[in-house]
Design the sequence.
């Protein structure tokens, strides 16, 4: 197959796809990956050909400013304006190549519109929960409810008039259901009864991507319990939280690996104890293999990676889907959740120690770990994609 993969410029959307890309290319498929230049090296290492953004799209990403700050409508406004900017580029790429399938990010790929424009199958890559409906009541989607919502409807109308296609509802844009869909977790953890096979392929997390692991010596841990702390790669400006972590676990019997991102400097933390390893970046997958507890922002992909390795979590959600991820962790007995703004060193240490001692939570994590490992590292997913394209061609 000749496949066009469309994505954005965010780690949380790119990283889950890399294992799938690697398996596709290993099976002899050609993959062209359209994303920002900062991820070009990662996709080419997986065997794909990289296609970069135009200056026009780069300019949009730099200059976009929301018309208001409503959490849901701001996300929808950004998605729609991104779709409007990216669709001409995607269609231009399609004109130049004979593609058998498009796999596009559910947020940043215009799938809802592409399905009506192109004559090849459109598969949606869901980097977070796949949902059957929008996470807001219907009354909030009625025109006139909010000025930013009305702006969203004007963008939809403009796009559809430009391509002479039917207008989807705002909920259809948000749920972004493709002709086929890929979700990077298990059906159980996704937890939406309206999202199920065969229209959705549950592929599990990508743990096959390459990570820099220089200067990482985990032998110093010995037989100590390992606590891993990371707030992801975007919202990491939490200097007080990192200081709380140092106070909570300083000179204890635990070994602590703490990744603080790019928005704080390690030097701002002053002297930290010998049982701490603190860096701006740490190879997450390597550490999760050894970790006993993961203190996390509850990003969807970080959580799935931890579940793959059976690691209980203390979730500290901040934005977007992180609150739903944290709720799912708690409801399934896979971890605990706290408000990062209300954490004290004593509370943080107490909750972490409760997780280390909780055999039921650890058992639940190991159960879902086995389920994820049984997904056979994208082998089944690639086979189903190939069969889907073959069937599509026969129908046409």
Sequence:
């Amino acid at each position: 197959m000749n496949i066009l993969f469309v994505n954005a410029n965010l780690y949380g959307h790119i990283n889950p796809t890399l294992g799938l890309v690697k398996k596709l290319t290993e099976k002899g498929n050609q993959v062209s990956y359209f994303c920002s230049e900062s991820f070009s090296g990662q996709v080419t290492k997986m065997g794909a050909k990289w296609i970069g953004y135009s200056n026009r799209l780069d300019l949009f990403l730099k200059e976009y400013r929301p018309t208001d700050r409503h959490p849901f409508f701001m996300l929808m406004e950004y998605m729609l304006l991104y779709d409007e900017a990216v669709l001409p580029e995607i269609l231009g790429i399609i004109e130049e190549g004979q593609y058998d399938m498009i796999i596009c990010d559910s947020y940043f790929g215009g799938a809802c519109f592409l399905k009506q424009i192109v004559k090849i199958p459109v598969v949606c890559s869901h980097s977070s929960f796949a949902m059957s409906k929008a996470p807001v009541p219907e009354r909030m989607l009625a025109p006139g409810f909010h000025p930013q919502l009305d702006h969203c409807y004007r963008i939809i109308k403009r796009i559809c008039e430009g391509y002479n296609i039917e207008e989807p509802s705002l909920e259809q844009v948000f749920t972004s259901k493709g002709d086929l869909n890929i979700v990077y977790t298990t059906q159980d953890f996704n937890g939406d009864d309206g999202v199920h096979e065969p229209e959705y392929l549950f592929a599990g997390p990508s743990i096959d991507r390459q990570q820099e692991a220089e200067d990482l010596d985990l032998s110093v841990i010995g037989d100590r319990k390992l606590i891993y702390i990371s707030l992801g790669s975007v919202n990491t400006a939490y200097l007080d939280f990192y200081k709380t972590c140092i106070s909570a676990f300083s000179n204890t019997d635990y070994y602590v690996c703490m990744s603080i991102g790019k928005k704080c400097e390690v030097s701002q933390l002053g002297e930290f104890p010998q049982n701490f390893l603190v860096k701006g970046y740490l190879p997450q997958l390597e550490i999760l293999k050894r970790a006993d507890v993961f203190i996390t922002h509850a990003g969807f992909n970080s959580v799935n990676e931890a579940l793959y390795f059976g690691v209980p979590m203390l979730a500290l959600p901040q934005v977007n889907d992180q609150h739903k991820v944290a709720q799912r962790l708690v409801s399934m007995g896979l971890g605990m959740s706290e408000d990062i703004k209300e954490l004290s060193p004593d509370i943080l240490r107490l909750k972490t120690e409760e997780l280390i001692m909780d055999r039921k939570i650890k058992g639940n994590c190991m159960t879902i770990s086995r389920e994820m490992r049984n997904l056979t590292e994208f082998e089944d997913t690639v086979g189903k994609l190939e069969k889907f394209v073959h069937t599509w061609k026969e129908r046409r």
Remarks:
- The radius of gyration is 22 Å.
- DSSP finds 15 helices and 13 strands in the chain.
- Residues 71-96 form the longest helix (26 residues).
